[in-house]
Each structure stands twice: as structure tokens, then as C-alpha cells.
Write a structure and sequence with these properties.
The protein is mainly beta. It is 7% helix and 40% strand. It has a three-stranded antiparallel sheet with strand order 4-7-6, with no helix packed on it. It has a two-stranded antiparallel sheet with strand order 1-8. The chain starts with a strand and ends with a strand. The model has no long low-confidence stretch (mean pLDDT 89).
Length: 89
Amino acid sequence: KATIEIPAKYNKRYQPVADGSKATMNCGAIAIMPQGWKLAPKDRLPKALKKEMKGLAWAPYSKEKPNIVVAGPVPGERYETMSLPILSP
């Protein structure tokens, strides 16, 4: 497991939305791991980690690069830290 911290004050930052009004800021993350490393499959995650990651979905960037994963956009207020389940070779 790796933990990614996003050092921003999301309660003070806003972004424009489709109707032109302002809404709280979203965030996302990109993790680039060494070759051979990849996301752990959901069926191999312990219950505690599943609970910690609830509502957060990581996905491989592409089939050719399974060691690069992305998450987001998610609400910045809720996800100031993101947990990444990793399988090392």
C-alpha cells in the first residue's frame, strides 16, 4: 500500500462548473511505479484497505503501461490522502 497526500486547502479553493457557478475543488492523482509493479486486484485487498478506499477507484493508464495508474477526479475535501493498493514483482 502506498499513501498519496495532496497538500492543498480545498475548503478555500473553488473551480467553475458547467453553469458558470463555483463549486469546491476536485483532485486526482497519477502514480508512476517501477516496471513490473501494478495495481493489486480487488479480490486480494484486506477489508481494512477496502474500507479506506471506499469511493476511490484507481485504474491503469493503459494496457501497455500497467505501472502507471490514475485516480480522480474526486472531491478534494474528502480525499486529501489517497491509498493505492500495489502488487510488486
